[in-house]
Each structure stands twice: as C-alpha cells, then as structure tokens.
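Collaborator request log, item 7. Partner lab (contact: R.S.) asked for a structural prediction of ribonuclease H to inform their binding assays.
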Amino acid sequence: MQDTLAPFLFIMVLGYALRKAISGREQDLCFTLTPRRSRRHPTVVLTDLDYADDISLLSDSVEQAQELLNRVESECAKVGLRLNAKKTEVITYYILPKHPPLTTTEGTVLKEVKDFKYLGSWVNSTEQDLKCIGYVL
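Returned to partner:
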C-alpha cells in the first residue's frame, strides 16, 4: 500500500523551496514574456514551469540561469531535497555558442541539449528551429 500523502507533501515542500529561492528577485532572475509598456501594462515574467517533479527554470541570460539554479539548489537543500544532475538538461535560445556551461553547486556540469521532451511535447532550441525552416547559421 502506497502512502497517498507523500506526493502531495513533496509538491508542497518543492513549491515552498521554489518560492523562497525566487521571492523578491523575480525581475532579476526571470524570463521576460513582455516588457513593461506603461504603468497599466507591467512587465510579464516567468521564472519556472512546474508539473509534479518536472520543473523548468527560465531566465533571460545564462548568468541569470546560473544564479537561479544556485538559489533553487540552496533552498531545496534546506528542506531536504536535492537536484539530480544526471536527469537535468539545459537548452538555450538566441545565445552565442560560446557561453559558460551551467553547473550545480557541487560543480557538476549540466548536459546541454538541442531538444528535449517536456510533458509529452518536444521543445527545440533556436538552432534546431532554424535548421527546420532551412536557415543555417
């Protein structure tokens, strides 16, 4: 018999750790969907997409992504959770090929991929999309 409360508690604790990691720093660590147009139309940002234990962290730059990853790892460690670097992948959009790799707080370099499957849908890098439409960099 499986404990039905365990998945619920996991989601609650993970959500708490993510909120603590990002709280107050949304503008600094986020992915900007739409920039601020006026006081009535503020900036719209995303920092993460979550579904159970599948999480996507989103940032505008590699540097922001590294800081966001470090903060999330730190807050997760405080509540007894840890990142599985073997299952973690990085995908970049519109970034020059020469950028520092993302690493865990333990120094493990995360695998960079051209595409991956998230919640049943394929997510492709910009380079992959450009190749599909016949534009080569």
